[in-house]
Amino acid sequence: MQLNIPNFGDKEILNDALNSEKHLTSTYNTFANECANPQLRGALMQLLNDEHAIQFDVFTEMHNRGFYPTP
User: Fold this and answer.
1) How many Å is the Cα radius of gyration of the chain?
2) In what helix (H) or strand (E) does residue 55 lie, and over which residues does it extend?
3) Which of 65, 52, 71, 69 is nearest to 14 (CA)?
4) How high does pLDDT run on average in the chain?
5) If DSSP codes are grouped into helix, strand and coil, which group holds residue 27?
6) Residue 4 pLDDT > 90
7) Sign of the C-alpha dihedral, residues 45, 51, 55, 61?
8) Of 16, 24, 47, 65, which alpha carbon lies 20 to 30 A from 31's?
9) Which of 28, 20, 32 is nearest to 59 (CA)?
10) Residue 51 CA from chain centroid, whole number
């Protein structure tokens, strides 16, 4: 039996990582906006900030490689 496993390159992997980060930041943002506990909100805001930093790193790598051109 031969498996037909797709071969993902750097572009596909980075694109998946960027889309995952976009989803995470959106979710953390919603949770932080609707959080009544100040300590939990602070923790969520720190996670949101960390995820934005990761998202920017992935975006920058994609842009530098020509995978995400911007005007």
Assistant:
1) 16
2) helix 38-64
3) 65
4) 93
5) helix
6) no
7) positive
8) 16
9) 20
10) 6
